[in-house]
Amino acid sequence: MEEFSVENIPIHIEELEHDIPDSNESEDEASDSATRRKQIPSKLSSHLKGLMGEANLRFARGDLEVAKRMCFEVIRQAPSAFEPYLTLAQIYENNNTKKYKAFLMLACHVQPSNSEIWCRLGDVEHQDNQLKAAITCYTRAIHAEPSNIDLHNKRMMLVQQKGYASSKRGILHCKLMLAKALPKNKHEQIISLCHEVAKEYFKVQNYIKAIEALRVPIKRIPDKVTEDLLNMMLELLLLSERYSECLDIFTQFCGFTFELTLEENMSITVHSYTMPENLHGDIKTKFIVCIIRLQCYHLIAPLIEEMLEKDDMEVKGMLFFDIAEALMGSGYFKEALQLLVPLVKTKNYSLAAVWLKHAECLAGCKMYSDAIEAYYTVIAMAPNHVDVLYPLGMLLIYQDRKKEALEVLSQDISLGKLHVALLIEQMKLLKQIGDLKNYWTCCELLLSRHCVVLQNYEELKIALRFLTVKEKIAKIRRVRLFRHQDTSDLDFEKFEVSFEPDVEDEYQLYKEILQFAYDSEEYVLYQKFAFMGLLSKRFQKHFTEIYLIACFACLANRDYNHGYFMAKEILLRNYQNNEIWNVYSLMLKLLDDPRNFSRFLEYSMAQKKFPLRTKEPILGNYYCTNANYSECLRYFLKEYKTCSYGVFMIAMCTLQQYCQRTKNQENKKSMLETVTQLFFKYAKIRSKHAKQEAYYNLGRMYQQIGLFYLAEIYYKKVLTVQNELLDQHPDILGLKEESAYNLHLIYKSSGNFEAARKILFQYIVI
Fold this sequence. Notes:
The protein is an all-alpha fold.
């Protein structure tokens, strides 16, 4: 029998599973489960069991080849049975580790409920230093035997050894699963593990996971739950706004009773309650906060008055502070002020955080002058607490104390901290009072968080390339290192930035800065800020738009060299956009170097940047403007029968050649007939909506060759043409003014000044 090969079977190991069912065993059953293995039913028939027994006997006697063949025969007849795979693994254990592990893997997958095999495979993976695979094997073993504490401890040891996930998520998961598996008589260990897991999740503000961790002891051992655990659970539920569950905790564990109503919108209204005596202060505070969040303030006033009378604020000031925060969060500023005013006068709790909350409460009560004084007290207590400056500056601006607000909003960036929201408000105020010099400085500081301030021509050329921001910064770094210049601003880590705005909001602000620079005719700054945006990782999504703005900035600042380069790059990517062609033509005209266009055409032809139908009209127009009419005719003759534009260009070239020739009158006569026929051919195949254009071009043709009476006829036809497109867009498509002006020139040259004046007053003079 041919031997079954498993050398090429891939081994797939998954990550830790997230959900393992809780153990519902009794304490006695849980204590016995570590030593008692549950019986795994065999999938073999009676005769195959006998064959399998014989195979094991041959293996024990050392007759390995016969044992292998027997195992393969059992696999052939019962491929889903795990016994032959396990025996084969034992056969290869000492002489072929790869096959040993592969057969163990097969045994595990055909019998996933056998935890012992998973443990053996996990040990092999651990010996091979494959910790991830070993962790998964023990996770599968735990699935098969959830109440086995040894398996949980072994997996936790492996996870700690691997350092699974820097956030300790794997270790926390293992501890929580261990808490679910521990017998109920080990309640102290269960509570300790769950409390530890909840604290770690609380630190990273993952309140949902923290609540799940604390719910394990509350559900499994409710009679052993401590006040600290309940207090933490209530804190988490309040932060998660799960107030109905808070009421359940108060009822089940704290001895409260409630008379309440559940509204249709699922809101809860508490009408009355009974509270046990000698209740712990933290639990009582959580109850008051819960009632405040449920907007049942009519029940709170007596409780607060009782606390003010009986409790010492010097000792329990933090409890009062929590209640004041809850009142402010629900809009009860006046009531919160009753707690904060005596609190800031205490010795133990007259702290910057309490004064800050006091200032916010005063502002909520619209006591702005007192709030400003309170904010100044916070600044005196905590000079480095820049978050206070923003609300203080807003209050000063509201009271029209702009100079004082400007002093407050100014930041000392030498400390290495930058409050972005504060800087934006400072920019708005500087713009409002007209201090543009400092305004532009703040704009540059704002953008320097994620943009590069270009320092030389080489860096500017790098910014114009269509590369990723990372590649551009790397190139600029090399340039600066070559020039022995500072590169610290390329890391964007010189400030500890806080209160970052949304990317889209900041981009809108960036465009407002550019627009204001343009409106203020600060074209140098306009171009500078536009080029900075090309090197922004934050604005990378809007690179195409910024590139176009930078092109217009070059035009405004008369930097035609860079503007031409940018217009050419945009054109190569948007050659079908007529507006881009206009921008490129304008840059080419202002640059006043026709060689650029010829080089551009040669490059685009060589690189096949444009499709054929786009490239040939470009070349034809180019040759026409350079008076190379023979080449122009060669390009447009291909379009003679199908394109009215081709006919028009052929007619124009022939007309120009006719006007240049001075000899051989017979040839001139025949050429004139050709020009006339071409123009009439153009007018015939032109669209019916373009009659005005066709008449106008015929009039121009006759005017140029000196047949003024015929030109007059066609110019007058232009003045009488009417169609829907002209009526809708007369300022774009209309040629009446041009025709009237040319007609007035004809009248004027013939001495008919009255007719010339009449046509001007009728069609041109407003």
